[in-house]
Amino acid sequence: MNVPNAARTVVAADPIRERRALAAERRIGAAAHLLDDLVVVPGTKSRIGLDPLIGLVPFLGDAITAVMAAWIIIESTRFGIPAVVIVRMLMNAAVDFAIGLIPFVGDLVDFGFKGNRRNLELFHRHALDPDADTTGSTALVVGVLLVFVGIIWLIVVGLSKLLSTVVG
């Protein structure tokens, strides 16, 4: 698990919640490690997990890793993590899944985009401290939503121009 011990200095008000969160963090960390960081690539400092290897099997491999990512997110929701952070975790999983569907390119992207590790870091930041700052997650979610709204607007405007040209 790649969460530094110095970051564990947050003390939960409830020791039972803290024990549960740390146990969940170990489970999530084990899954993230398995999928994203299992072995060191020889001659580099980079790590690789099973995600890009399983992803070589078209669709089925990506579906299996998406189920694991969904489990990490479901496990995270049990700790009252803010909704915007859960949405960010869903976005990480969706990007990992969607790009993973592209043969070979998706597998190459899996080497660099470690969605499960990112979700582990979000879990760690928010599980013991429900009041942790969510500004970064909010900005990312709002930014992505604005981009999608802009794309839809451009499509509607383009289609209306096309129809006005064709219909007259």
Describe this entry's structure for a reader.
This protein is mainly alpha-helical and 168 residues long. Helix content is 70%, strand content 2%. It has 7 helices and 2 strands, in the order αββαααααα. Strands 1-2 form a two-stranded antiparallel sheet. Strand 1 (39-40) and strand 2 (47-48) form a beta hairpin. Helix 4 packs antiparallel against helix 6. The model is unreliable at 1-11 (pLDDT under 50).
Summarize the structure.
This protein is mainly alpha-helical and 168 residues long. Helices cover 70% and strands 2% of the residues.
- The number of strands is 2
Q: What shape does the CA trace take? A: flat
Describe the largest sheet.
2 strands, antiparallel
Number of helices: 7
List unreliable stretches of 5+ residues. 1-11
What's the pLDDT, averaged over the residues?
85
Query: What is the string of SSEs from the N terminus onward?
Result: HEEHHHHHH
Number of domains: 2
Strand content: under 5%
Question: What is the multimeric organization of the chains shown?
Answer: single chain
Helical content (DSSP H or I, runs of 4+): 55-70%
Nearest-angstrom radius of gyration? 19 Å
